[in-house]
TrEMBL record:
Catalytic EC class: isomerase
Short name of one Pfam family: Ribul_P_3_epim
CDD domains (alphabetical): RPE
Keywords per UniProt: Carbohydrate metabolism, Isomerase, Metal-binding
Sequence similarity: Belongs to the ribulose-phosphate 3-epimerase family.
Biological or metabolic pathway of the protein: Carbohydrate degradation
Entry-linked PANTHER family: RIBULOSE-5-PHOSPHATE-3-EPIMERASE (PTHR11749)
Gene label: rpe
Function: Catalyzes the reversible epimerization of D-ribulose 5-phosphate to D-xylulose 5-phosphate.
Species of origin: Flavihumibacter stibioxidans
Protein name per UniProt: Ribulose-phosphate 3-epimerase
Catalytic activity line of the entry: D-ribulose 5-phosphate = D-xylulose 5-phosphate
Record flagged with keyword Electron transport: no
Keyword Metal-binding attached: yes
InterPro entries: Aldolase_TIM, Ribul_P_3_epim, Ribul_P_3_epim-like, RibuloseP-bd_barrel
Length: 216
């Protein structure tokens, strides 16, 4: 299982310590949630913070853009250090073009869907993307309750991906913890994002390791 802890739940006054902890842990990616106060009702952090975090690790920066008109910022996020750039299906008028743009800039291209968006809506973009991020809470905030219908969405999408023989990864984001991680893996998830479950646990490194080896 690929583990991508979300720094939305980190200590912003001491990000360096949390970055170091993640770097030394079994985390695979750093999940970075960018919010603009328009696509979602919250504002998080953006380019300068990501840029300053970049030298703290060689691990991949998995940037989740919860912003309107993400195509305007593709190059800026590349320059700030993004390796994986995920845009929302619901925020893109020209999703196909945006995905091409992300790949042309040498990044892994992801598309995210909100809980109300059926996975079937991705039918005509599936061959173009490297990753599908299924939101298992409504985007905008950490610490929300996992929506159980997500399991059905994962199973449906995983079946379609396997049917087509595509190398697309399924990432699950929102309310992921040690109680649902195994079931998410069994449903077909490849990547788990966890914010609160990692950073609010007494031993974040141990929680990351437990999530990583959930199916061992
Ligand atoms: O994208 C988002 C929220 O919009 C997530 O990445 C959250 O940051 C996950 O936090 P937890 O639900 O794990 O606390
Ligand atoms: Fe996220």
């Amino acid at each position: 299982m690929i583990i991508s802890p979300s720094l939305l739940a980190a200590n912003f006054l001491d990000l360096q310590t949390d970055c170091k902890m993640l770097d030394e842990s079994e985390a695979d990616w750093f999940h970075l949630d960018v919010m603009d106060g328009r696509f979602v009702n919250n504002i998080s952090y953006g380019l300068p913070v990501i840029q300053q975090m970049r030298p703290t690790t060689k691990k991949l920066f998995d940037v989740h853009l919860m912003i309107e008109e993400p195509e305007k910022y593709t190059e800026a996020f590349r320059k700030a250090g993004a390796d994986i750039l995920t845009v929302h299906f619901e925020a893109c008028r020209h999703l196909h073009r945006n995905i091409q743009q992300i790949k042309e800039m040498g990044m892994v291209a992801g598309v995210a869907i909100n809980p109300h968006t059926p996975v079937q809506m991705l039918q005509d973009i599936l061959e173009e993307v490297d990753l599908v991020l299924i939101m298992s809470v409504n985007p905008g905030f950490g610490g929300q309750k996992f929506i159980p219908h997500t399991y059905n969405k994962i199973r449906t999408l995983r079946q379609r991906i396997d049917q087509l023989g595509l190398p697309v990864k399924i990432e699950i984001d929102g309310g992921v913890d040690l109680n649902n991680a195994r079931q998410l893996a069994e449903a077909g998830a490849h990547v788990l994002v966890a914010g609160s479950a990692v950073f609010h646990s007494p031993d974040p490194k141990a929680t990351i390791s437990a999530l990583k080896h959930i199916t061992d």
